[in-house]
Structures are given as structure tokens and as C-alpha cells.
Amino acid sequence: MKQLLTFLLALAAIPVLAQNNQPIDGTDCSNLFFKALLEEDANAMGNLVSNDFTVTNFNGSTIDARALQQAVSQGFIVVDSGMLTGTRSRTYGDVTVVQGLWNVSARIQNNGFNGNVAYTSVCVRSGGRWKVATVQLTPAQ
């Protein structure tokens, strides 16, 4: 009887954990960030980035979290498809550096891009939660 009760309590907790959608580590945090971009989910993105977040784009310009969220929510950035490959993560205490390739088809202010992008994301654990602090995107051959 105790086993059945424990099993039922564990099942009841699963939806709560799934709704929380908090990253379990730095790599998961980075992956969820790219998933939020793909799904054009500005709210999820806002929950994943640090207060001082920046992204550095193809031409070396940087934008902050608020500008990125607005661009996604207003349709200035539209990711049609994207797949992460070759992911390599290194964790140093409360900091994880994630690198890999993102094969992406996207439009930025109606200018299309289709190809591989090398990315580096730095995720930090602060207050017990993982956040993306910065992302660097570079077109790759």
C-alpha cells in the first residue's frame, strides 16, 4: 500500500515539474534558449536569460534581453527551423560554456538566412537557477 501511495504521489508531481520548465544544468539552459527562439516564445526566453544578458550577432553588434524579446514577440526575428549539433559543454562550478553548430533557417527583419551558425553560450547558476548570460553567433562554412 505504501508503494502504491508513493507511486501515485510521484505521478502527481510530474505535471508540476514539467510546467516549471527550469533548466537542470547549463547545457539544458542553453538548449532551452534555442528552443524558445525556435518556438518564438519570448516569455520562455525572458525566464531563461540573466538581467544583464547580451547576444552578439553576425556583424558584431550586441543587443540586450529586452530588445531580443521584443524582436521575437513582434515578429522581427522568425526562426523557421533550427537544429543544434556538435554540442560541447564545459562546466566550471556555477558557469557552463556551451559551443556547437546551429543549422538554422530564419528571417531577421525579412532578410533570410539559411545555413550553419557557430554558437557559444555562457550560462551561469545564480540563486539556484541557471540563466543564459551571453550568446555569440557566427556564420560558419
From TrEMBL:
InterPro entries in UniProt: DUF4440 (IPR027843), NTF2-like_dom_sf (IPR032710)
Top-rank lineage group of the source organism: Bacteria
Domain DUF4440: 31-132
Signal peptide coordinates: 1-18
Keywords: Signal
Hydrolase listed as a keyword: no
Protein name: DUF4440 domain-containing protein
Species annotation: Dyadobacter beijingensis
